[in-house]
Every structure is written in structure tokens, then in C-alpha cells.
Batch of 2 targets.
Target 1
Amino acid sequence: MITLDHITKIFPATRKHPPVTALDDVSVTVERGQVMGVVGPSGSGKSTLARIVNLLERPTSGTVVVDGLELTALGRADLISARRRIGMIFQQFNLLDSRTALGNVELPLELAGVGRAERRARAAELLERVGLADKLHAHPAQLSGGQRQRVAIARALAPRPAVLLCDEATSALDPESTASVLGLIREVTDELGLTTVLITHEMDVVKRICDAVTLLENGRVVDAGPLSDVVERPHSPLATRLLPPTGVGGTTDPVVEITVGGDGGDTVLTELIRRFAVDVSVVGGSVEHLGGVRFGRLQVRVDGEPEEVRQALAWLATRTGPQLHVVGEVA
Amino acid sequence: MTSWDRIAPALVEATWDTAYMVGVSMGLSLLLGIPLGVLLYVAAPDGLDPKRVLHQVLGAVVNVGRSVPFIVLLVLVAPVTRLVTGTTIGSTATIVPLTIAAVPFLARLVEAALREVAPGKVEAALAMGARRRDVVRTVLLAEARPGLVAAATVTLVALISYSAMAGAIGGGGLGDFAIRYGYQRFDTAVTAACVVVLLVLVQLIQSGGDRLARRLAHR
């Protein structure tokens, strides 16, 4: 649905700064219907990446294809109509203070030449959908941050886009509003079959609603993949951020770290106890919900006859493959 | 003694003269100053449609217009005034230098008001497929309305003060009245009366402008 191919963006030098390479040969593909999280520390180029998708920022090199249309090859007029298929919301909402909620949602329809009655009806319907049926005539100043972002979402959805870009959409919100706005983004993505790109610096946001994730650092893709794949590579850059190591150390017992959950991986521990005459105790761990799927990273100590323990660990290795990681040494 | 029954009608007439000069030149200034301000904003290096040369030329013209003291400008543009109105004295003639002085003044204020609009709003409009002229109309001018009203208010007050200065070289209006009836006849009471009228005018305009700006602000 969205293909960014070998994108490089260099901001030219100014009097104060040398040239800055914001994105360095970045390729990202987002499948239709997915929520793709783009994470990274500030200055990693993730906001530039979002702005490249609708060409608010033109890449120095590389191509942008959205919904089969190569945006980087379009002229100004075609780009303007292509942008109407790409909704965008922002950290600072960027609503017009001079318009009511209704007027704000009508704006993109007005720009597209939709008649007054039709756009009014559509705007009202969308504001109802985002839970603001009673705020149609409120000005942004009279709304809370969460409500403003809901208006912005309604505005982005008004021209029936295929893609929704969220640039740090929840970074200015309190935890409660963050949760509800993220929920709304997930809902509308599924309801309307959108393809959503979510720029954030918070791993928690990724955990809650993303299907796939791309980690940027210094303008480069450091790690990427569907969420379920990424966490099964325990020491990948993304996995360590999504499921932080639990940090049990200083033991000489055979402590192993395993990732459970996902597709039927829940039964590893019970099977281990049934098959081998060993005691298993959980000494640490964490459980996270990633994109609606539960994952646990557990650190377990395996006690028993040395030979039995050795066999148990060997079995664990075959059973869980790369998810197994021996932390301590076998005594 | 000041003979108020003779002076008062003349004072009223002078006030109307001032209102006429200031009103017409304000109208012309809005007509020319707002587009010029928009152009300054749009053509700026970080504007919607950067045009280096155009921006520098416009900037230079505006700066020249703003740096010539009004009393000098009056004399300087006299040939233009004569060309346009056929004379260089009287209220109608004064409209020409007043407008020439107010347009660059207002244009700079308009530019500043547009700069106050958060760039994110412009970006949001572009992201939803707005053309540049849409951005100017639906985002910039709409969002800057309170600032534009404030700019117009300041310009109007400046025009009143300029128009009084024009009285010194036969421009008509309250300034002319104060000089002829007050200064030249050594009648301080008349001068004071003019000051009171000017004070009330400015006060009314400023508070009216402030109120309108507040109403438009929606904050």
C-alpha cells in the first residue's frame, strides 16, 4: 500500500548548520490494512519520514508509492489530488482556531469542492463517529487535547482517505486521552480498511496498536518487521525495547530466558515439567500485550539432577529455538 | 476670548474633513496593503512560494516607504499628488500621500500577523490537498483575522496622526484647523479642543478595534 524505496533526505546547509542527512537510504513497506509504527529517538528522522509519505517533504532521492501511485513522479496538480487520499494528524492538532469543530472537519471537503449541505452532513457524521456529537459548534479552544485530536482525526477522515499518517499524534496528550485516541485510530483503521503509519517515540504506543514496526536511528532503519516476528528475536534492537530484559543476574543456577506466548507457545513450561524430572521456578519476567497478542519474557531456573537438567535445557532449545537464551551457567 | 459659536461649526467641519481623508486613505490602504503583506509573506524565503528577488525588491520598496518621515513624504510625492488629484492642497489631495505612507506600514503589519499563524496549520492544509491560494484564503487570512484587525487599527490611528501633520502644508482637517485657528491666532483653547477631538477619535478606534479582535480570536 505504501512503499518508500531507498529514500534519502538531505537538508541543505544553512548559515548556521552544515547539511543534515535526515534519512539515509530508508526503505519501508506498509501492507494494506496495517498499522505500522515508526519509532526512534528524537532526531532519528521519523517525522521527516511521515512527511515524505505525502511529500510535504520531497526526498533528495528515492521513490514514494502510495496506493499504486508513484507520488514522486506526479506534477503539482496531481499531487494535490493524491494528497486528498492521505489523511494526516499532528502532535499539535493544527486545527483552525477560527472555525468550529464542524468547520474544521468541513475544510478538506471544501477544498475538494464538495457542496455545502453534503459536507456539513459528512462532517457531522464523522464528529459523531469520533464521539463528539455534542461538540459540533465548539471552537478548538473550548475542547480538551484529546477532543481536539478527535476533531483532527475526523478532519483527516473526511475526504475518505486510504492512508492515515499520525505524526506523534498522542505525544501532547495525557495517558487517558492517549489510550482513547490510540483506540480510535485502531478502530477506524479496521473499520475503514485504512493503512496507517504511526510516528511515535513511545514504545508503549507501538505495543498497543501496531501490527508492524520500524525502528529508526540516525536516519537509518535499524530493525523492522511484524510485531510478532520482532519479539521472537529476543536480542534484536526492537525486542529489547518492546520486552525489556528483566535483569536477573548474579546466580550460578541455570537460569534461562524464554519468550512465551504468540502462537501456541504458552505451554512450554508445563510441557517441560511433564517431560523431565526437574523443578522449574520463575525468577523474573514480564508480560506485554503487543498488538492484542500476549507475550511473556520469563526467566526461569531449572533445578534437578545435572543430567536431567542438561536434557531439559536441550529440549527447551529445540522446542523454543532462538527464543531460548541461557543467562546463567550450568553449575 | 474664544468665540466658540463661530469656532464650533468649523471644528465639526474639520473633524469631518479628517474622517474623509482618513477613511478614504484607509480603504485604499486595505485594498493595497493586505495583498502586499500577503505577497511579502508568501514570497519570503520560508514562505509558501519563495521568490528571492521579488521578496527583496518588495522589502526594499516597503522599507523606503516606511523610512521617509511623513512630513517629507508629503512634499516628496507632491508631483504625484498633483498628477492624481490636480492639486496639492486640501483634503482630497492629502489622500495620496496618506495612502502612500500607510500601504507599506500596513503591509509590514499584515506580514507580521500572517507570521503569527502556526506553520503547522499551513502544513495541515497542504497535507489535505490545499492549493497555495486556498492556504492564503482559508488558513492564513482566516486565522490571522484578530491580528489583521489589530494591524488595521494601528494603521488607522497612524493615519489620523499623519493627517494632522498634513495640515501643516494645507491639507485640511483637524491638523490644519489647529494650526490656523489655534497656533496662528495664539488661541490655545482651540488647539486643546482639537486635541480632545483627536483623543476621542483615537480612543474610539482603538477600543473598537480591540473589541473586534477579541471577538474574532476564539481563544
Target 2
Amino acid sequence: MGIIVLVLLTYIIRLFQLQVLDPSYRRSADKNALRQITEHPARGLIYDRNDSLLVYNDAAYDLMVVPNELRAFDTLELCNLLEISKEELLKRIDKAIKWSRMIPSLIAQQMSKEDYGYLQEKLHRFPGFFVQNRTLRHYPHPIAAHILGYVGEVDANMIERDPYYQMGDYIGFSGIEKAYENELKGTKGRRIVLVDVHNRERGSYKDGEDDVKPVQGTSIWSTLDLSLQEYGEKLMQNKRGSIVAIEPSTGEILCIVSSPSYDPNLLVGNVRSKNYFQLSQDTIRYPLFNRALMAMYPPGSTFKLANGLIALQEGILTPSTVYFCPGGYNMGSHTVACHHSGSVNVIGAVQHSCNTFFCKSYYNILSNRSKYPTIQKAYQAWKDYINSMGFGVKFQSDLPYELKGIIPSVQYFDKKYHRSWNGNTVVSMGIGQGEAGTTPMQMANFMAIIANKGFYYKPHVVKAIGTKNTPNTRFSDRIYVNIEPRHFETIMQGMEMAVLAGTARSAKIEGINVLGKTGTAQNPHGKDHSVFVCIAPKENPKIVVFVLVENAGFGATVAAPIASLITEFYLKREVKRKDLEERIINM
Amino acid sequence: MFIENRSRNSKGVDFQLVIYYLLLVIIGWLTIYSSANNHIQAVSFFSLDNVYTKQLLFIGTSIIIAFVILMIDSRLYVHYAMYIYYFTLLLMILVLFIGTNINGAHAWIKIGSFSIQPTEFAKFSTALALAKFFNEGKTTSEKKYMWLNASLFIFVPIIIVMLQKDTGSALVFFSFIILFYREGLTGWILLLGAIAFFVSLFTLFFNEIYTVAALTTTYLIFWFLQRKDRKKMIRNTILYVVFIVFVFGVNLAYQYILQDHQRIRIDTLIGKVEDPLGADFNANQSKIAIGSGGFWGKGYLNGTQTKLNYVPEQSTDFIFCGIGEEWGFVGSSVVIMLFIAMIIRVIMLAEKNRNHFVRCYGYGVAGIIFVHFAINIGMTMGLLPIIGIPLPFISYGGSSLWAFTTLLFIFIKLNNN
């Protein structure tokens, strides 16, 4: 009897200790049997400015296997379904077994919808196999690869920076995908499932009471114009260079072409790393290199417009100031040649792209000792103007990896010339050569400043987030340049004349008043780059275009026709000059 | 001629025991249903692939067995006690030759899709045989060897069971020591048994050198205290020598006789080894399942640990986990109380009965149920090493349920008259 009572008491006390006093068993039990499964949301869609789909999600299906649940099955049939050899299938299953007998392993990646449908019906005959679906980015039009960017799996560093991400999650690596990652990624869902001792799922916990459905990422409307982008890429085929077109009244980028480019579908899913490697190894074409934002060129003659504006604002020039051009600007030691000769005012100088005129003006800006006691002060004042126009600084809008460009500092020249320098020392910057370096995006933005007569919006690629009617307000601030609008009108007259009767005649379009300026960016490594900028229509500018074609020589020969075709296409939605178009495409 | 005459019924069936029996069997079936009902395969309730459907069949046949037992003349059990015992021994020996292996024990006879474990039936037949043995008048010379003869009744089945590699069941036969004690076995034996138990535990946890040192110290203390009493000194010396030999015996048995899995079970229980994913896994998961039940339990059919197979053998040896998880402290206590109530009731009835045979048998029944209950529940709660024996009336299994039903209802029937 005593023993029985003793056992009774011992057991009741032990029971009380296990079940009531010690909470750790409860926790262990939950850890045992409950598994939180993350449900990945589909990323947001990306549309162009006219609601055409640029990026969507394609369902992809992975065939998985749990080796422990494998039973005898018809290998031949599965091989035929998957279109692989029997050896290959067995090799993959072997690999899966080596990895884990309980955890699902991948057998076939990213089957098409058709294959999946076919397989799904027969899946019951292949115990141990199951299909897992995931979404992949898909690009219906193989364009704008650099700007749209791509997604890839997060790495350990990213997970450490932001614990939201877990191994296997996708994250935007570049372009819009990266800049708008927060909007596009959506919200992860959560499913709590019961897991048995063999790691198999056994239905949802509490009938899914605590589950959270994933929320799809927000859709984004890009500022890009799909057909214009497509047209631009077509014109730039087999050429190197870039096109940037901006709507000046908003700062919205209408098209941004960097050529050579690649098909964005190449950097999707299981082929991404392989293709990325191949693209990155292409040292002849550098297709991954976004020339519109990351290539730095000497600004060329288009820079003359900036110097003209500064000189007008500084009072160095008035519209009636006339300089005589003897066919070159002589600074003693050597001469800057000029294609033009004769007396010109600023309008004529823009029209004919007169080197002498702008060298002189630039020299005079830097030698204005009545206003600036030293060359350093004068140069700094000029640099401030230039920086305010977006040169030598980053826009830091939603564009990926932009280059700052180079506008040398006072200290740079002080060091280089041991503090003894004057306007003539750096005069080549007056005509866009020398030390200055700018990106195509900066040049296009400069055109927007001219079109707006003194201000710009940060150029950006996203117009609306969520719905088409909720505009992206991040870039709606006007950024002013400290130059009066009347000076812009003067410059614009020069640009109009350049198209009508000057260097930019090849950019003329029937029925549209185009303002333009040619440029030739000197290239120390080979043939000069052909540069052209234009604004149209003159009365109410709707588009500004910058075109640069590498190693194509004088601006008027290649860049100007391309810019004019882009303008015509955008404003009229059709191009009448088919022969010109054909000539450019086939170049 | 064996069908008994109703008019001779003196007391009637003890309904208290029958109710305890029915409650335990129902709780058992509900728990088996819950642990098997894991929504994986939709199998028809009536399919014999389900353990709970099979168990329902076993319960039905057990009730028939109970009725048959109650109808048969009780004198028959007394009369044929020895024959029943020999028959079950024969079956057990037969198993050694034609038996099948289930879970490492070579203890089953397969008949169609059912398996029968004769050892289960040997438990009640041994109780019957011992009752018969103690009940028979003894000559003086027979009395001299009475305990030796009595222990033979236990050790023969124990040896056969050990040959079947069914260590758990072998332990159960030691439950008859309770009966021996009631029949006059001196308490010294039990005390020695208890001391031997602790000494072996000490040896296994530390090592034989420490144990010998401890024993020597104790011996020297007693030698000092009782140095005047020559007789006690001789007794102490003999005990000392016996224990020293025992210590080395335990060590040798541990090293050479126990199988690896048994050694590991002992090591993990006494805390020498910690290996929650390996050897400790079952013991650990069992504690987790019971512990996660909390005070009120997770509710019927809401257990996760048992249903998802974290607990091994969740419908047989570890069935108490299911009760602990789903019914919590309250439910588990009720089950423990039911067992204790049943055992105490059996002992009380046995004591009250003037028939010596019935009293002996009653103690045998109480002992068997108690040892099963104590070892099984102690094991699931991590108080005892893992020993695979079923929880009476509750665990899934035909042989076990039939045998326990027979065991209990023969007692009810004997007590009846």
C-alpha cells in the first residue's frame, strides 16, 4: 500500500512539474510541430506612360522531389515529360538524396505552363514529386534593359543590412527594380503549417487562423514611352552611344537608350547568372554598361550654350555684342581653330558654333576683375552656374548608378598650374573640350533647362506609383538656375537659326519648329563622337533630345538626324522621312 | 457442466472494478483514435487498416471474453490453474521456434493479419498457478523449499521471455514479489532488493571503484558500531562480500549482457549521456508531448506531438503522451487515479476475501497491473528508462487487452463467489 501511494504521489508531482510548472515543453512542442512558411508575393508590375506593360510576372513551375517519399515509378515516362535522359534524371535524384532525404530538392527548374499542366495530371503516378510555383519577371518587349533593371536572389550582406529579406528572396539589383524595391516587393505572407517528425507538411495550423496572405507589390507607371523607346533602340542598333529624351515640363524621361544593350529576359531566373557572366565578359560591346548615365564624354560644342548663358547673365555679353572671328582663337602659344570666320553676335555664334566667339566670352567671364578680384573667384562663380545646371553633380533621382561627371575645382587648377593660371589656360572648356566631362543625362537635362527658360525637374523614370492617378511626387520640385529667362530666349534664337540655316540643318522637320545644336565631342582614342541636342516644338517645348553616337564624327552627320527622327516620332507618332530612317537604321 | 448455477451467486459482480475497466478501455480507444486520426489519408472508419477500428474489434471481443469468464464456473480456474500455466509456457516456448519479430522482440505468433503474444497470457496464468501453489497445503519439507519453488514459477517464464529478447515483459514477472511479500516473504529480501537497486544505480552512474569505496566505508562504520556483537559482525561481513561481488556483477552485466540500445537507455535516463536527437529522442519527445499539454490540455483531437509522430509508438507504449497532451494535467491525473483506484480496489477485495486462492490471485493481479502502470507511465514521464511494455487496458493491441481483460475478470469472477 505504501509503495502504491508513494508511486501515486511521485507521478502526480512529476506530472504537475512537466505540465504546469515547466513552460519549456510547450515551447519545444511548438518548435517541433509548427513551421512558418513564407509566402512570396508577386512583384509589382511596371507600365510605360501609356499603360503598356513593360514588366510582368510569369508563373514558373519547379519540379521538386522528396527522396524519402519516392516509390517505384515509370522513369521513362517522366524522362519524356521533362525531356531529359534517364541518366540525367537518376543523377539529379541521386544528388537530391545526397543533400537530404526529407527536404525537397529541385529536379527540373522553371517548366513552362504547358509542361506543368501536362505533368500535373500525371503527378499522382510519381509519388515523392511535387510542383512548386514561383514567379519570374518577364519582359514582353526586349527594351530598356538598363533602366528597368533586374532582380536576383539576395546575398548574405543584404540580409544582414535588412532583416526583412531571407535566403532565397528576390531583390531589385539595378534600375527601377532597385530604386523602387520597397514599392515593388510587396508584403510577404505567412502560413503556419503542421510538420510531422519526417518534416512533411500536414495541413495548416488552426485552420489557417493565424495565416497572413501575401500582398502583391505595388504597380509602377514609368515615364518611358514604350514605342519611342523601341524606336530609339532601333535607330541606335549597331551603333554605340545613347539617346536621352526628356519632357521638359515635368522632367520625365521619355526614352533612354544605351547601345549596345541586351534583352532583359536574359537576366531572369535560372539563366541569369550564366547570362550575366557572358554579358559582363563581352569586352567589345560592353552591353551591361549604361552609357546614358555612366559614360562620360567631353560636352563638346553644346557646352557653348551654357557659356553663352553665363556670359549673358554676367553682362559679359549682350545680344548685340559682336566678336570678330579670324578663323580661330589665338592665345599666343597656340590657336583654337574655327570652322567659321567673320563677325558674329551670340545668336550667330550659336548658329555657326563659333569657337572664337565662345573662347573669347569664356575668357572674358574669367577675366572680369571688376567683379571677381582673382581668377579663382571668377572660376568658382562660373563653376557655381555650371553646377546649378546639373553638370558635375549627381541628380540622385531614381536613376541607377549615375556618374557625376567632371567640372574641375579651383583647387584642381591651382594645383595643376601652381596657382598661376588665367582664362586662357582653361579656355578650351569654353567650347566644351578640355577637362570637363558630362554624361548624356546631364546634357539632356541642360536642354530641359533651356526649354523651361531657367529651371528643371530632376530627370526621373517613374511617373506614378500604385495607380496611374497617384503621381510620383518625389521629383516635382523645380530647381532654378540663376539666369534670367530672356537670356534663354537669346540662346534659343541661336539654336533655331542653327537648324534653319546653320550647323544643324539636318535636324529640320516639316511643320515643327526645332531648336538644335550640334556638337563634336573630341575623342583622344579615335574618331570624334557625334553629338546633337534639340528642343521641339519651339513654341511650347514638349521634348528635348540628346543624342551621342560614338566615333561617328561631326554632330550633324549622325546624331542630328537621329534626334530629329526621335522628335518627329514623338510629336507626330509617325515618321515621313522613311529614307532617312532607313539610312540611319542600316548604318 | 461448467456453466454455473445462478442461484449459487453469493455476492454478484463488483461493479466498481467493471466501471474502472470500462472507463480505462474507453479512454484508451479515444486516445488511439485521436493519435491515429491525423488527416493524412482518408480511410474509411470501418477499414481494418485503422488501428482504432481494430482496437474497437479487440474491445468487442474482450467484452465477449469477459462475459464468457463470468459465466464459467469459477472452480474451473482453480482446478485447471496449473494446466493453463503449462499451456501458456508451452506456447511461449513454441514462439521461440515459430514466432515472428515485432519491434526487436521475438515474441509473436502470426495468425493471418493478427499477431498474438503468448507472454501477455502467461502473466495471468502465472498468477493463477502461484495462487494455486500457495493455496495447496504444504508438508514441512515442502515449506522449507517453498520460496525456492515459488520463485521457479516466475523464473521459468522470465528466462523464456529473455530468450525472446523481450526485457520489458520479463520485468513484469518480478511484480509477483508483491504477492510473495503478502504470503510471508521476509521484508529483508525487499530491503536487500531496494539496496541492490540503489547500489547498482550508483555503480552505473559513477563506477565500481567508488561504489566499493562507499560500501567499504559503510561496512567499517557498522563494524565499529557493532563490534561487540559477533553475530551481527559475521552477517555484515557476509553482506559486504556479497555486495562487492554484486557490484562487479552489475558492471559486468552492464558491459557484456545488456545490448547497446539498453545501455544507452540507462545512460540517458541517469543523465550520463545527453543526446536529444539520438538516444534521448524518444524520451525527450515523450516529455515534450506530455509537458506541452499544460493544465487543461490542448483539447481532444488537437494534439500535435502525438499526431505528427514526434512521439514514437503513440498508440501502444507511449499512449500516455496522447492523454497528457490532449487532456493536460487534469486528464492525466484522472487516468493515474483510475489505475490507483482499480489497484487498491483489487487489493481491498483480495484482503476481504476469505478464500486463500482468491487472495493470492488478487495480489498477483494488483501486482501485474501496478508494475505495468508504474513502468509505463514512469517511462513516458522520463522517470524510468524506456521499457517497452503496454499501459493496461489503454494501449492498442489485441493480446494485451485480451490478457488484461482475462486477468481482471477472472479475479472479478473468483471474488464473485
